[in-house]
């Protein structure tokens, strides 16, 4: 069992930055692929980024490439999402998720059904 708790959300102006954190309980954190998803008002949940267990492989949704960076600290059992050059369309509730699945292609981790555990979410609001 893994519990995930997000923090770091808030209100920021367009062009600003935020750093989200997701603290995980449990001793098997390094076995999980960790991802961030988001849900904007009136829209479906959307994949943002994933980082595999060794921290060396990452994959991003196209609209956040070059602006967002996902990272993890296995010793602290925490995953981060550094968000720069924020845009109003980045406004959403951001969720972290953990997956024990093993895929040959990191692309498959963009699918929400593959995740075993989810956090409660943190609100990010970007004003124009």
List keywords for this structure.
47% strand; 128 residues; single chain; seven-stranded mixed sheet; four-stranded antiparallel sheet
State the helical fraction. Answer: under 10%
Low-pLDDT stretches are none
The general outline is globular
Secondary structure: number of strands: 11
Task: Summarize the helix and strand pattern as letters.
Answer: EEEEEEEEEEE
Q: How is the biggest beta sheet arranged?
A: 7 strands, mixed
* Number of alpha- plus pi-helical segments: 0
Average pLDDT figure: 96
Quick recap of the structure?
This protein has strands spanning 4-7, 10-13, 18-24, 33-39, 45-51, 58-60, 68-73, 78-83, 92-99, 117-118, 122-127. The chain is mainly β.
What do you see in this structure?
The chain is mainly beta. 0% of the residues lie in helices and 47% in strands. It has strands at residues 4-7, 10-13, 18-24, 33-39, 45-51, 58-60, 68-73, 78-83, 92-99, 117-118, 122-127. The strands form two sheets. Strands 2, 4, 5, 6, 9, 10 and 11 form a seven-stranded mixed beta sheet that branches. It has a four-stranded antiparallel beta sheet with strand order 1-3-8-7, with no helix packed on it. Strand 7 (68-73) and strand 8 form a beta hairpin.
Write the layout of secondary structure elements.
Layout (H helix, E strand, L loop, with lengths): L3 E4 L2 E4 L4 E7 L8 E7 L5 E7 L6 E3 L7 E6 L4 E6 L8 E8 L17 E2 L3 E6 L1
